[in-house]
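Q: Here's a chain of 134 amino acids. Please give me its 3D structure as tokens.
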Amino acid sequence: MLKNFKIKTQERDVVPLTDNIKSLVAESGIQEGVCIVCTPHTTAGLTITSFWDPNGFLDLQDEICRLIPTRIDFKHQHDTPQDAAGHVKSSLIGVNMTLPIHEGKLLLGHSQGIYFLEFDGPRNREYFVKLHAD
């Protein structure tokens, strides 16, 4: 089963995906297998992190921007310096993840969630979820 989800993002957005993905797993009836999540964008990423404190999302984006700041001396300037920085961020953070499905549920920690990270934006984005049964 492959499902395409569309989302709208803002600049430096962190979009929760967990509920949509958990619902898809439940609807699928798959008891044991894998869930693959991916996004086909070069200025966005996917991560798993805690959802307890929303300020953690601000810290996450702040630290990513501190490590990879937008600057004009990138050797590739496809569209803008922000776009160039987004390419580096996306490559380092990653655009896909694989999660086990066990007893009909994603294997996530009790405080973990799946999030889409926008490194450019605002944009119309998409992500895909592929489910495989064992």
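Q: Can you summarize the key feature?
A: The longest strand covers residues 123-133.
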